Amino acid sequence: MTDLTDPNAQHPALTYSSYLALDDVLSAQHPRSDEHDELLFIVIHQVYELWFKQMLHELGGLQRRLESGDTPHALHTLGRVRAILKVAVAQIDVLETMTPRQFTSFRGRLDASSGFQSEQFRELEATLGRRDRRVFEHYPEGSAGRDRIAAAMSRPSLFDSFLRYLVTQGYDVPAAALERDLTAAWEPSADVQRSILTAYADDSGAAQVAERLVDLDEGLQEWRYRHVKMVERTIGHKPGTGGSSGAEYLWSTVSRQLFPDLWAVRSEM
Ligand code: HEM
Ligand SMILES: N[C@@H](CC(=O)c1ccccc1NC=O)C(=O)O
Predict the structure, then answer these.
(1) Which residue, of 85, 100, 111, 244, has the greatest Cβ tally within 10 A?
(2) How sure is the predictor about 9, in pLDDT bands with cuts at 50, 70 and 90?
């Protein structure tokens, strides 16, 4: 029988903590102050980044499934992404237990670091269709993060994959939309909206996919809304550490739509 404790064994037995690399994960919290609440602030952000990683992973799979016309698996993945987004929004409740005084006690130690520097959040936005060079201001030229965001801005967005999916489902999508410059911002299109309306009229799988995409869009707007309310109650109208006006800037992002065409068609049904 193998002696699991034998130090000379060639491969140490897999354990809970070795499989999950807990030595790495649990030694990665480095508060810069002695304030009790700083650990919560770090842990919450790390959990977000893990969920961002998982969502990027799921969205890659989703785009492949859409482009191959696989409705059931696309719907399944969309359901998973929606569930993760709901957890991400709900997590704000935990951070909101931190009072303004508790946050102020260590905020100075954050220097100029800020959410503006979240590479994965920007990659997520780019995958969801954002094409905005301004985000690069916060990423040094030649940095891996900048390159990853730029790469995501040159790939088909989730909406581009949805348009290709519509073609696999037999819907007519204007060639100009399918052959567009992927690095440019998407311009809402009346012709594309007509194709989407046809899919809704058929009450087909494509209509279900479209509804799940609207969930995603609404979910991100919800996150933005909860984030800015958290910001208002925690730092009021102070400017942000990242150099923006703070809440005022964040409000300007709240009703940003990922898929404007999917919202536009609602007035036509
Ligand atoms: C007390 C908690 C928080 C405060 C006071 C806060 C404050 C801010 C402020 C003021 C900004 C604007 C950028 C700046 O000038 O600094 C910002 C941006 C951002 N924050 Fe937070 N934040 C908090 C928690 C979080 C959490 C938990 C996340 C999760 C990852 C997060 C992610 C982001 C992201 C991604 C941005 C960029 C948003 C955009 O440009 O659309 N923040 N935050
Ligand atoms: N921008 C925040 C600081 C902040 O929340 C933050 C700082 C470092 C890493 C992540 C952060 N979270 C989101 O912006 C502030 O102005 O207080």
Answers:
(1) 85
(2) low
Is residue 264 included in any domain, yes or no? yes
State which residues form the domain around 61. Answer: 39-268
**pLDDT score, position 8:** 65
Mutate to test the pocket of ligand 2, among 241, 245, 253 (most ligand atoms within 8 A of CB): 241
Q: Report, in this order, helix, strand and coil percent for the chain, each rounded to 5.
A: 65, 0, 35
Residue nearest to atom 26 of ligand 1 (CA): 45
Between the CA of 9 and the centroid of ligand 2 the distance, in Å, is 46
Check whether 136 is labelled as a binding-site residue.
no
Question: Alpha helix (H) ranges present in 92-189?
Answer: 92-95, 100-107, 119-127, 144-154, 158-168, 175-178
Ligand 1: does its nearest atom lie under 6 Å from the Cβ of 223? Answer: no
Q: Classify residue 43: in a domain, yes or no.
A: yes
C-alpha–C-alpha distance, residues 143 and 69, integer Å: 36
Using the mean position of ligand 2's atoms as its centre, give its distance from the Cα of residue 170 in Å. Answer: 46
Average pLDDT of every residue of the chain: 96
Q: What is the pLDDT of residues 233-260, one digit of tens each?
A: 999 999 999 999 999 999 999 999 999 9
Q: Tell me the mean pLDDT in the region 143-154.
A: 97
